Fold this sequence. Notes:
Elements: H1 16-47, H2 50-77, H3 80-102, H4 108-137, H5 142-171, H6 173-192, H7 215-228, H8 230-246, H9 249-260, H10 265-293, H11 295-315, H12 319-347, H13 353-365, H14 368-382, H15 384-403
Helix pairs in contact: 1-4, 1-5, 1-6, 2-4, 2-13, 3-4, 3-6, 4-12, 4-13, 5-6, 5-10, 5-12, 7-13, 8-13, 8-14, 8-15, 9-10, 9-14, 9-15, 10-11, 10-12, 11-12, 11-15, 14-15
Membrane topology: Multi-pass membrane protein
Keywords: Cell membrane, Membrane, Transmembrane, Transmembrane helix
Protein name: MFS transporter
Amino acid sequence: MGAGRSPQPGSLWRDRDFLIFWCAQTLSVAGDSFALIAVPLLVLNVTGSATQMGLLTGVAGTASVVAGVFAGVLADRFDRRRLLIACDVIRLVLFATIPVVWAFGTHVWLLYAVLPLASAVGMVFQVTYVAAVGGLAGEGRVTEANGMLYATAAAAGVLGPTLAGVVAGHFGPTAAITINAASFALSALGVLLTRSSRYAVEPAQDAGPAREGRPWRELLAGAEFLFRQPVLRTLTILLSFFIFMTLGLTDIVIYRLKHDLGQTDSVVGVVLGVGAVGTMVGSMLVARVRRTLGFGPSWIGAQVVSGLAILSLGLAGSVWGVAAFMALYLACVSVAGICSMSLRQQVTPPHLLGRVTSAFWTIHFSLGPVGAAALGWGAEHRGATTVFVVAGVSCLVLALIAFFTPVRQRDPERA
Length: 415
């Protein structure tokens, strides 16, 4: 059990600080989803180049990964409340710069300056946010808290791009980016209204002068903790292979709908919207599922159903069949992902949580881009059905392996 952490009594629905934080993060996610649509539209309108869109996305993604290496140290060494507010304010300024400059002419170079910086700051925000949730919710309520946060994030992920498309269509992409910037101001205000004591973290016993001058040791502390803890070590390895086989699945679903089933872009949007509903359902059910079944059965069971859902995606011959299995798959991904994140928050000492989160995400996503490229190549040369079958069987194999590891424990947080 994480040192210095105690369960918080009562319902989260009556916890003023958590509810304000919850609303603030929902607004932040909604802002991100506006940028997800508005920025590519802005690039496409100005350059007409899909290559420029891909290049900008790649540069921003690289900045995010690099920032992730250092984000954990920042989250563990600075006041997390102030750090969250600072990240929101910086992103507000960065995104507000775009419509202001665009009012005097189109400057694509500005996007290459703003987007990587915003992505890097966004990664620091995300790591700090995960580290802060444990203190805000308390160990006994962290799974419920993550479920609530994920559910509204999924809802924002459905509604945000839709509204962004409407705003961009009527007033232009810069108007949507302006709304994005404003959402960060509201998010910062929300965090400001919460009590600073809820973010307090007791310093590590070894965090004094003896550790000064050892920055790389600080960066590696999160990875060392992950691999010393048997359940977290196994989860990190298994999930790294899981992301290799699944990061590109959304692309393959789109490919199947467009190429195999001959559907329009609007139908693709509807299917992905139905899938996001699955994410919401899984997020709302995860706390009850884990209380009833325990960690191991919940995580392994979600992996088994995920694998079966992926297999079914390859066999579904109708749009609604694809939508239903996509929703089932994403619901299970939510259950497994929230269980995994909640366990890390429960067993990691508070002073290490930022670095552990950062290390996990860095390791977890390291194989993802390669896997996404491999899935895309496989769909084009071997067909989408083959890719779904291989990915589905791989997930079932990972679930079987997990059954023979410490992951199968019902209550590993009590060990």
